[in-house]
Structure formats: structure tokens, C-alpha cells
Design goal:
Number of domains: 2
Number of helices: 11
Distance between the termini: 10 Å
Helix content: 25-40%
Strand content: 15-25%
CATH architecture of the largest domain: Alpha-Beta Complex
Length: 344
């Protein structure tokens, strides 16, 4: 079968022919219908050799959807022929967070070498993939896998980031989304679907700001110091109640720290190296700073429900599997609108 693999440190991924996998006991074989490309892929492919820990060769793709092709011995809960999406942050399944569906915070995944597909385990950017357990599959039903596969990360991650801040996001308050790309444009929609706050998107690119407006942002501004005064004006002098930073570099982190008010939230979602100092004289009183990771299985089901009722949708560009490396070139150039989806 064909697969898009990362083969050599700091070199572009390549399309290769590898053996079709066979499911072992408890596993599920999927025939892939769609696979999303993510900045996290680009991030790990940019790591120097001494920091790279994901193994080579690595079949990319941690956003996956497919048709159940074959069940390994003892696997149950899904039927052959069903359309499903893959829940990516795999855990042990037995610790307390895992039993709550929060495998993204599994206590033992790291020490046991349990890695997500495409981020250590073979991913979905191929014609077939192995899913280690049926519990890591969510039924898509009538949802189009190509249009919705990115919700497994680009929808789930902002949903998980936003949900704890909902009690603060009351009418009349301002929520800020920094970075209106693949995750940020979903963050805008989730905020509009779940709250009555004013949503302001910040991005240096005019095309990204237009995308944010197209999907429901109330305002879209350049992500520079001028945004601070403008957000003050929009909020009636208060400032931002919550800032969701989908970039995570030092510049955006510093910007977030300057625009919030007392008892606000700053949520660092992007995988950049930005940090926010926390201390008595560094932030407005009782400002909460969080760095969440991915989301839970039940939250992914909730995200798909938002898609089913038409409250959110992913802006996508589609590519054939042979063109998968081009997706990452476009991502690096910043010319993708929304999410790049590979369709085998």
C-alpha cells in the first residue's frame, strides 16, 4: 500500500510503498477515507535529531477517518463497513483519567511507550492503518469523513481549550483568538456556537483575518501591539476575558498577557516555545494560564454533534495521497485556507 512517511530528519516526507498491515488481537484495520495534515506534523519534522523521539520511518497523520475493514480477534464495538473517525491521544485505558475518557492525560502512556498515530505509531496518511482498540473509534454516521476528519484535532483541541473558560464567557465580554489558521478558525466557530461573547481574531495575514470573519468572528485585527488598545475599545475599557493563543510563540504570549483583565484566562494552545511568567507583579490578579493538550473521547463526540447540527464546519482543501508532501509545503508557505485533507 501507499503511505506518506517521514524518513529522514529535516527532510520532506515521501510517498512510499509498504506492506498492508494486518490487525492483531483486539485491533481494528481501517481503510482510510481521509487524513488531515497538521502543524504538529510540521513541528516534529522540524526538530533536530537530538530532540526527535518519534521513530523512523514514521507514517504521518494523527487526524484519521476510515471504513472498518477487518477486526482482530476479540475486537468488538464496531462493525465491518462502518464509517468511523480515530480518537488520537491513545492511553492505557485503565488509569483514572483514561476511565473518564481523558486518554489525552493518561498517567502511564509515556512510560509505557504508548504513542498517538502519526506521532509515534503508524498514522492515517496511508491507504490503511491499524487502530489499537475499538474504543479509539468514534462513529461518523452520515458525516462526510473528508469534511469532518480534521475535527479529531482541529475541532477537538480548541473545544477542549475553550470549555473550561465557558463560565467566564458571559454576554458582553470579549474572547480573543490568536492565529486564525487550521485550529484558530475552528476556535472562532466554537466560541460563537457556545457563547454570546464578542469574538476577536488576531492574525498577521489578511487572508487569515478574512477567513476568521467568514466563519463568524465579530472583529479581525493584525496581531500586533495595536490590537491591545482596539480590544480595550471593543470591550468598553475592560480588556479580554479569555485569550486563546493558537500560535504559542513569545510574541503572541506577550501580547496575550497585555490584553487581559482581572480574573481572566490565557490558554496556550499552540506548540510554539512561548511562555508567560506568572507571579504577583506579572499578570492581572487571578489571571489563569493553562496549556491544555488535545481532548477527551466524550468531547470528540460533542464536537461531532456540533458538526451534525451545522454549528461548526472545517474549511478544507483536498489532496490525493500522491500529493500529500505538497500539503506540508503549502502549510509551510502559509497558503492553505483552513485545513489540508489527504484523500487516498
Amino acid at each position: 500500500m501507499k503511505a506518506c512517511q517521514y524518513l529522514e530528519i529535516n527532510q520532506p516526507p515521501q510517498i512510499v510503498d509498504i506492506e498492508k498491515p494486518q490487525p492483531g488481537p483486539g485491533e481494528v484495520l481501517l481503510r482510510i477515507t481521509a487524513s488531515g495534515a497538521c502543524h504538529s506534523d510540521e513541528f516534529i519534522m522540524s526538530l533536530p535529531e537530538e530532540q526527535y523521539v518519534y521513530g523512523l520511518p514514521l507514517t504521518l497523520g494523527h487526524e484519521g477517518a476510515g471504513i472498518v475493514e477487518e477486526l482482530g480477534e476479540g475486537a468488538s464495538g464496531v462493525e465491518i463497513g462502518e464509517s468511523v473517525a480515530v480518537y488520537g491521544p491513545w492511553g492505557c485505558g485503565l488509569c483514572h483519567p483514561c476511565k473518564q475518557g481523558k486518554e489525552n492525560y493518561c498517567r502511564y502512556a509515556a512510560e509505557r511507550g504508548i504513542l498517538p498515530p502519526g506521532l509515534g505509531a503508524p498514522g492515517s496518511m496511508a491507504e490503511y492503518m491499524i487502530v489499537d482498540s475499538p474504543r479509539h473509534l468514534v462513529k461518523l454516521g452520515e458525516l462526510d469523513p473528508v469534511q469532518n476528519v480534521a475535527l479529531t484535532d482541529a475541532g477537538l483541541t480548541p473545544y477542549h481549550a475553550i470549555k473550561p473558560s465557558l463560565p467566564k464567557l458571559i454576554p458582553g465580554r470579549v474572547a480573543v483568538v490568536i492565529g486564525a489558521g487550521g485550529l484558530g478558525h475552528m476556535g472562532v466557530q466554537i466560541l460563537k456556537a457556545l457563547t454570546a461573547t464578542t469574538v476577536v481574531a488576531l492574525d498577521p495575514k489578511e487572508s487569515a483575518r478574512q477567513l476568521a470573519l467568514d466563519v463568524g468572528a465579530d472583529h479581525a485585527l493584525p496581531s500586533d501591539e495595536s490590537a491591545i488598545a482596539e480590544i480595550k475599545r471593543i470591550s468598553g475599557g475592560l480588556g479580554a476575558t479569555a485569550v486563546f493563543d493558537f500560535v504559542g510563540i513569545e510574541a503572541t504570549a506577550a501580547l496575550a498577557a497585555k490584553m487581559v483583565h482581572f480574573e481572566s484566562d490565557i490558554v496556550m494552545v499552540g506548540v510554539g516555545p512561548g511562555t508567560i511568567p506568572v507571579g504577583f507583579f506579572t499578570l492581572r490578579y487571578e489571571t489563569s494560564v493553562r496549556a491544555p493538550y488535545w481532548g477527551s473521547r466524550s468531547e470528540l463526540e460533542e464536537v461531532f454533534e456540533l458538526a451534525r447540527i451545522g454549528a461548526i464546519h472545517v474549511e478544507t482543501e483536498t489532496f490525493g495521497l500522491d500529493d500529500a508532501p505538497t500539503v506540508y509545503e503549502r502549510m509551510h508557505e502559509g497558503t492553505l485556507r483552513g485545513r489540508g485533507i489527504v484523500v487516498p
